[in-house]
Amino acid sequence: MDASLPAIMTRNWTAQDLQGLHCADTARLPVIGADQIHRISSDLDVWDSWPLADTSGQPVAWCGGELWFALAAPAFADPEERHGHARIHTFHRTGTTYLHLGQTIAEGLTPGSREWSGAARLEGSSVSLYFTAAGIRGECPQSFCQRLFVTKASLTTDQACPFGAWSSPEELLRAASPYMPADQREGRAGEIKAFRDPCPWQDADGARYLLFTASAAAAPRAFNGVIGIARGDAAGRAYTALPPLIDATDVNNELERPHIVRRDGRLYLFWSTQSHVFAPGISAPTGLYGATAHSVEGPWELLNQNGLVLANPMSEPFQSYSWWVMPDLQVAAFIDYWGLDDEAAQLKPAGRTHFGGTFAPFVSLSLEGARSSLSVSTRSSKYLSICDIGAQV
Fold first, then answer.
1. What Å distances lie between residue 111 and 50, 142, 237, 366, CA to CA?
2. Can you tell me the distance from the alpha carbon of 49 to that of 358, in angstroms, rounded to the nearest whole number?
3. What is the CB neighbour count within 10 angstroms for residue 392?
4. Which of 232, 294, 304, 312 is most buried (CB neighbours < 10 A)?
């Protein structure tokens, strides 16, 4: 490897690490009640979300609030169909209110058949939107090909149209060793291989990196999830793949939406995963997991010894997902399947009866070295359609 590149010490996440995980003693989220579920509209589902942030990951101020992005799709009878129709949408968050501003990127610009998760950064007056191009534009049937892209636009103060024209998307990094290409033509949720969720991160010395969800090329088997990382050039345009930060081979297939928060002289790496993507014989809950190190090279130490930071309630195992931690340790997520009141539930219920499809209440973390704890925000949120904009601006 180039001597100028960091020597990453990959942390293997093993079944032995999880043997000491006693679910009853973990930081469990509070049960979400019906009065906390506020949908954007009856015909739109919303899930994975992230803010427009500065280079540290802190949400930036915009028109008295913040700009947020989230995946959204029409509300189908089967909510799981949303993944095949996902587009990135924009929201204006002011206090406890989210105002829906509509689809972010015009149809036909992105190279995929749909858009999956990413991140957004403000550099000067330009917004860089990192995203996953899922599938190939115009394909039929849809594939599970995944590629990492960025598009840029100017930021305006027009509350009805916050961005200028988006640039032609540029591919950030192609999957190659040590990462598997994610080019499957067909598959099932939780079983496909990954090359998605691009998230930029800038070290204290200004060095640019890209984090992403990936699969280990050296272990082409059912459970080979890793958190990938690449080093960028000074302009953040050309990236060189590095060894993964976390390797969960034989433990877990998907370490989703990785991102780094700098806090008290440490780096904190967070990712989300679901109980059903752990290998057989490993019992671990759907939750937010994490590790800490003093530098990106490592060594990385699992938070709370096993990596688990927070989990869904025992009686609501599918209540929320896709957590995003900000530098102030506020944590965003979306409401998945709620109102089950069933500790024995192993599968998500069919149909829309229990599906939230909207933003979850924020919670807050505390961090002390390699230990984390959970505190709960008591604020609720309201979610409005673009139709309500005239009353708000």
1. 21, 13, 18, 40
2. 10
3. 12
4. 312
Give the integer Cα–Cα distance in Å for 172 and 175: 10
Q: Of 291, 254, 361, 375, which Cα lies nearest the Cα of 32? A: 361
Burial of 85 (0-12, 13-18, 19+ CB in 10 A): middle
> What CA–CA distance (Å, rounded) separates 279 from 252?
6
Cα-Cα-Cα-Cα torsion 55, 58, 59, 60, nearest 10 degrees, comes to -60
For residues 31-44, one letter each, b for 16 or more C-beta atoms within 10 angstroms of the residue's C-beta and e for the rest, the string is: ebeeebbbbbbeeb
Q: Label the pairing between strands 301-302 and 97-103.
A: unpaired
Q: Position of tokens 């998500």?
A: 348
DSSP string covering 238-303, please? -EEEEEEEEE-TTTBS--EEEEEEEETTEEEEEEEE-GGGBPTT----SEEEEEEESSTT---EEG
Residue with tokens 């050039």: 233
372-391 pLDDT tens trace: 999 855 444 443 433 332 22
- Rounding to the nearest 10 degrees, give the CA dihedral for residues 339, 342, 348, 354: -10
Residues 132-191: tens digit of each pLDDT? 999 999 999 999 999 999 999 999 999 889 999 999 999 999 999 999 999 988 888 778
Write out the H or E segment, with its range, that includes residue 67: strand 66-74
Give the residues across from 273 on adjacent strands: 287
Over the Cα atoms of the chain, what is R_g?
20
CA 157 remoteness from chain centre: 27
Beta bridge partners of 98: 93, 383
Nearest to 275 by CA among 11, 26, 12, 10: 26
Q: Which positions ≥6 away from 329 have C-beta within 8 Å?
A: 261, 263, 364, 365, 366, 367
DSSP one-letter code for 17: H
Q: Is the pTM of this model over 0.85?
A: yes
Contact call for residues 232 and 238 (beta carbons, < 8 A)? yes
What domains appear along the chain, each with residue ranges and CATH number? 13-391 (2.115.10.20)
